[in-house]
């Protein structure tokens, strides 16, 4: 079989049925078995053939991670037999057929590892690897793959029927249904906006801090010419150093990496603002400072250029009062770390120009991110939904609940990181600032916590080595059981405020539809993907049950848990 272009999932499984595989000349990661990311495993014989061809180590890695690989690695692990260009593959294929070399087979050490007496030891290693990333009750598919191999050893006699039975079982799980839904939600996010005639080529970023610097680096990585402005060169240098590390990881070809580095230029004077198609402001969260910058920028920007802000919490209506063309001002809210988190909130006011939003959508998609349209409101969607979650975690900590127990309860629900570790990672000073903005107009009671005391003492979290946790080498040191008893309702206290706030966002029109909201919360906060988003979780659990649970929490702990009036709309 001759493979031309992307060959993943069922396409790759079918290719593995042939005697020989010829792959194209390509630097892209075109080969993969990504079914696990949909809560499934290969179902066309892939669990058997991947191990037969590549061995249990490489074959299982391909299936358990779901991550794609390039042609060179595919050749190295035995997934394909040759790499040939467009003009060469027919002749190369004829030679293979004529010479009939031995068909690909797993390395000897892998065949030994596949012997029945040794499989239990290998199985335990594989389970340990998977367990560090995903719980079996949350994501059963990778464990099912390991069980198939442990029981059948990639046998052609029994493996295919066993795979079919197992596939049927994992496909009927809530996890698979919700992850497949999430897959289609990505497409929903990408379809926002209309095609535009103009192209964003030059991006000018003002503010070389962690967010601004990393936004600039990501834009350069994705092909844009980028100028990065800050008050002095010394503030830009750390951003350029971080960018260099990103480029080294992501661009392996020396020539292409040099071109990527060249696309990112320091610009203390801010001359790039006059040439840019898009200007992104990413300075600190201060209304007056941002407005002073806008006055200067709008005098320099060329006609038709778009100004956007990366503000995380200030309403656009307040920011844009100094602009000559306020309806052409949008928000492009990235999340930290920029290179890892896929969501960008594209923020609008009621009267924002439609073309400006379309440019924002097109730019976001063009740099490989997922846009979420949000109405301008305090905290938009992601920060607004995270705030009560983190606030309740800090309230539990103030009550004496063990910090590790708080994080464990959230992770047990399916969150990628516990809220105490999250607030330490964000920075307690930033959390305090954002919380102040979000609670200024809120009528809900705010529970007591120790945030202000920690900030005042200089313990700001990971960046200072001490926050709620002590941090060493970038990792939180979590005491096992310091503190008082763990309340029975701890998980609902953490999760249901997020769900309630999601309902509020939907009811208030911050996001137009529940599918978009679920997608945004999953890709922006890491909300347990296998649960399909907060609104989907509420529906699966039962709307009446969730609302009743919130009412019970409000009686016991305060009015902050009172169900939003939007529950009746669901």
Report on the structure:
This protein has helices at 10-15, 46-65, 71-76, 89-99, 108-113, 119-131, 140-152, 159-171, 174-190, 210-221, 233-250, 254-263, 287-300, 316-319, 354-366, 382-398, 403-413, 419-426, 428-440, 451-456, 490-507, 514-525, 534-541, 543-557; strands spanning 7-8, 22-23, 31-32, 82-83, 202-206, 225-229, 264-266, 278-281, 306-309, 329-333, 343-348, 370-375, 470-472, 475-477. It is of the alpha/beta class and 570 residues long. Helix 10 (210-221) links the parallel strand 5 (202-206) and strand 6 (225-229). Helix 16 (382-398) packs across helix 18 (419-426) and helix 21 packs across helix 23 (534-541). The longest helix has 20 residues, at 46-65. It is globular, with a radius of gyration of 26 Å. The mean pLDDT is 93.
Short description:
The chain is α/β, with parallel strands linked by helices and 570 residues long.
Helix % is: 40-55%
Sheet-strand content, in percent, reads 5-15%
Please tally the β strands and state the result: 14
- The geometry reads as globular
Features:
eight-stranded mixed beta sheet
Fold topology:
Elements: E1 7-8, H1 10-15, E2 22-23, E3 31-32, H2 46-65, H3 71-76, E4 82-83, H4 89-99, H5 108-113, H6 119-131, H7 140-152, H8 159-171, H9 174-190, E5 202-206, H10 210-221, E6 225-229, H11 233-250, H12 254-263, E7 264-266, E8 278-281, H13 287-300, E9 306-309, H14 316-319, E10 329-333, E11 343-348, H15 354-366, E12 370-375, H16 382-398, H17 403-413, H18 419-426, H19 428-440, H20 451-456, E13 470-472, E14 475-477, H21 490-507, H22 514-525, H23 534-541, H24 543-557
Parallel strand pairs: 1-3, 2-4, 5-6, 5-8, 6-7, 8-9, 9-10, 11-12
Antiparallel strand pairs: 10-11, 13-14
């Amino acid at each position: 079989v001759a493979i031309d272009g992307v060959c993943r999932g069922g396409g790759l499984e079918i290719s593995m049925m042939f005697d020989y595989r010829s792959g194209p000349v390509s630097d892209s990661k075109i080969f993969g078995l990504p079914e696990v990311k949909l809560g499934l495993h290969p179902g066309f014989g892939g669990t058997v053939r991947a191990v037969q061809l590549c061995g249990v180590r490489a074959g299982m890695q391909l299936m358990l991670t779901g991550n794609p690989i390039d042609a060179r690695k595919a050749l190295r692990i035995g997934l394909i037999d040759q790499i040939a260009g467009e003009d060469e593959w027919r002749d190369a294929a004829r030679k293979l057929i004529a010479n009939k070399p031995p068909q690909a087979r797993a390395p000897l050490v892998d065949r030994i590892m596949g012997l029945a007496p040794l499989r239990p030891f290998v199985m335990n290693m594989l389970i340990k690897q998977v367990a560090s990333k995903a719980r079996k009750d949350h994501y059963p598919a990778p464990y099912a793959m390991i069980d198939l191999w442990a029981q059948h050893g990639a046998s052609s006699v029994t493996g295919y029927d066993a795979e079919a039975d197992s596939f049927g079982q994992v496909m009927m799980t809530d996890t698979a249904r919700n992850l497949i839904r999430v897959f289609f939600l990505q497409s929903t996010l990408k379809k926002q906006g209309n095609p535009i005639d103009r192209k964003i080529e030059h991006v000018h970023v003002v503010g070389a801090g962690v967010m601004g610097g990393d936004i600039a680096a990501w834009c350069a990585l994705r092909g844009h010419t980028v100028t990065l402005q800050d008050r002095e060169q010394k503030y830009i240098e750390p951003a350029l150093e971080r960018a260099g590390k990103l480029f080294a990881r992501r661009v392996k070809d020396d020539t292409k990496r040099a071109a990527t580095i060249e696309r990112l230029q320091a610009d203390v004077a801010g001359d790039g603002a006059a040439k840019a198609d898009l200007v992104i402001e990413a300075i600190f969260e201060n209304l007056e400072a941002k407005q002073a910058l806008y006055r200067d920028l709008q005098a320099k920007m060329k006609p038709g250029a778009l100004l956007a802000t990366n503000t995380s919490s200030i309403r656009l209506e307040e920011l844009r009062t100094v602009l000559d063309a306020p309806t052409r001002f949008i928000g492009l809210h990235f999340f930290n770390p920029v290179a890892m988190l896929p969501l960008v909130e594209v923020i609008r006011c009621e009267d924002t120009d439609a073309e400006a939003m379309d440019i924002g959508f097109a730019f976001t998609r063009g740099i490989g991110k997922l846009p979420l349209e949000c109405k301008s409101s305090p905290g938009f969607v992601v920060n607004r939904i995270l705030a009560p979650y983190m606030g309740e975690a800090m309230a539990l900590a103030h009550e004496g609940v063990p910090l590790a127990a708080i994080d464990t309860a959230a992770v047990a629900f399916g969150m990628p990181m516990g809220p105490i570790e999250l607030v330490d990672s964000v920075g307690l000073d930033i959390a305090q600032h954002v919380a102040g903005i979000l609670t200024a107009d809120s009528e809900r009671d705010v529970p007591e916590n120790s945030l202000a005391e920690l900030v005042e003492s200089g313990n700001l979290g990971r960046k200072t080595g001490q926050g709620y946790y002590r941090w060493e080498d970038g990792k939180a040191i979590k005491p096992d059981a310091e503190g008082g008893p763990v309340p029975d309702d701890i998980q609902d206290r953490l999760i249901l405020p997020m769900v309630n706030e999601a309902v509020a966002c939907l009811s208030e029109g911050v996001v137009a539809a529940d599918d978009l909201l679920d997608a945004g919360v999953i890709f922006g906060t890491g909300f347990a993907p296998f649960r399909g988003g907060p609104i989907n979780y509420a529906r699966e659990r039962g709307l009446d049950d969730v609302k009743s649970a919130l009412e019970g929490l409000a009686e016991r702990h305060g009015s902050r848990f009172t169900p939003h009036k939007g529950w009746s709309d669901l």
